[in-house]
């Protein structure tokens, strides 16, 4: 499936829309862009209107301001939904995108119909925090490419790297070509905001799925379970033998998880509206 050409909102957010049905928005991770979701667009577009976009400081979207917090990234999504005339959407956030999705759910609860957080962070240990802060300092000094090789080793299995060198190389190039300031602003938030809204998460009142990979060293199963415990009724899923980039490395597996959840969430929403008996 070849997606449509990218378009832009009045505030210059770059986005694509594929498929028809209930809207689902996918938010990529730090250093990546909307193209990371190719496997999910193929899998979800037959059932949903799939919206992918470049978050602030990434791809073809504008830089965030230097003092931009997660609220600014959440408000970017609101502007996109307003531009598309979408009142409510399911929101899927990966890694840093999971933090944005959390902020969006708390800041704009009337605009979200379901929430999925994939391979994201919550309640890092002191050692984990020290490691990501050190990587932020390296990026500040040497640019987005500073941590690329180590990141790819954390993100992908050795087997996938060996079998798909061109795709891994393309992702490395994407990381290296990020705008320095946009990347640093975003990565700094990723490094420090793992507890964003922790005491308010009980207010999230939509169907919620928190998932990660068994072998994800930065977004661990413990983090996923801990985050899910804070959100009423949230489901926590750990996919066996998967690493950080499981949406890219294992799209069929991840798509089945997403479809099962999203179709069920859609049905619950229809019942709440009296559409389904």
Automatic annotation (TrEMBL):
InterPro entries: AB_hydrolase_1, AB_hydrolase_fold, AB_hydrolase_sf, Epox_hydrolase-like
Gene Ontology MF terms in the entry: catalytic activity
Upper taxonomic lineage: Bacteria, Pseudomonadati, Pseudomonadota, Gammaproteobacteria, Pseudomonadales
GO cellular component, one term: membrane
Name of the protein in its database record: 3-oxoadipate enol-lactonase
Ranges for domain AB hydrolase-1: 23-250
Superkingdom per UniProt: Bacteria
Entry-linked PANTHER family: HYDROLASE, PUTATIVE (AFU_ORTHOLOGUE AFUA_2G14860)-RELATED, MONOACYLGLYCEROL LIPASE
Entries under SUPFAM superfamilies matching the protein: alpha/beta-Hydrolases
């Amino acid at each position: 499936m070849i997606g449509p050409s990218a378009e832009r909102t009045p505030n210059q957010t770059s986005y694509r829309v594929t498929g028809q049905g209930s809207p689902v928005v996918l938010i990529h991770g730090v250093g990546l862009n909307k193209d990371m979701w190719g496997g999910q667009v193929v899998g979800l577009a037959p059932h949903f209107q799939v919206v992918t976009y470049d978050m602030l400081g990434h791809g073809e979207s504008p830089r965030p301001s230097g003092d931009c917090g997660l609220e600014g990234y959440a408000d970017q999504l609101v502007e996109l939904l307003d531009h598309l005339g979408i009142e409510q959407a399911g929101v899927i956030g990966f890694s840093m995108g999971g933090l944005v999705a959390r902020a969006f759910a708390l800041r704009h609860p009337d605009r979200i119909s379901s929430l999925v957080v994939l391979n994201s962070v919550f309640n890092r240990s002191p050692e984990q925090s020290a490691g990501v802060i050190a990587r932020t300092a390296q990026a500040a000094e040497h640019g987005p490419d500073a941590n690329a090789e180590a990141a790819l080793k954390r993100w992908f299995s050795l087997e996938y790297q060996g079998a798909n060198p061109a795709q891994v190389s393309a992702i490395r190039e994407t990381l290296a070509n990020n705008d320095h300031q946009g990347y640093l602003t975003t990565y700094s938030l990723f490094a420090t905001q793992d507890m964003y809204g922790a005491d308010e998460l009980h207010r999230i009142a939509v169907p919620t799925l928190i998932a990660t990979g068994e072998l994800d060293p930065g977004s661990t199963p413990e983090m996923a379970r801990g985050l899910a415990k804070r959100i009423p009724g949230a489901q926590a899923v750990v996919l066996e033998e998967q690493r950080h980039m499981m949406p890219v490395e294992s799209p069929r597996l991840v798509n089945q998880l997403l479809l099962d959840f999203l179709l069920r969430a859609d049905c619950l929403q229809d019942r709440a509206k009296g559409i389904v008996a």
